[in-house]
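Lab notebook, bench 4. Still working through the backlog of constructs that have no structural model yet. Next entry is a single chain of 115 residues. Request: give me the structure tokens for it.
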Amino acid sequence: QVQLVESGGGLVQPGGSLRISCVASGLPFRNYAMSWYRQAPGKERELVARISSGGGITNYADSVKGRFTISRDNAKNTAYLQMNSLKPEDTGVYYCNARRGSEYWGQGTQVTVSS
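Model written out:
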């Protein structure tokens, strides 16, 4: 049974930082590209960042370039999203996604940026 479990979300002030994590089980993690998506209230889910299976290729949404960093530790079956200089518009539920042909989703972790 495949499971993706996100953690690390919370409330942070504008300009602050947060790191969220996604621990995978039940799949050969090192063979899967990993992505982070987010969904704000009333909006569609959007891609935030993606990292290749080996970690050598990353892609970011224009809105987060220079502020967010995606990474992975294949030995720990874990993907990370380091978020710096957070803005209120970064608020939303952040979802972890694993894809290699088929794809799997986590349950999401709430990130709220507010003063």
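Notes after review: The mean pLDDT is 97. The CA atoms of residues 53 and 70 lie 12 Å apart. Flag for follow-up if needed.
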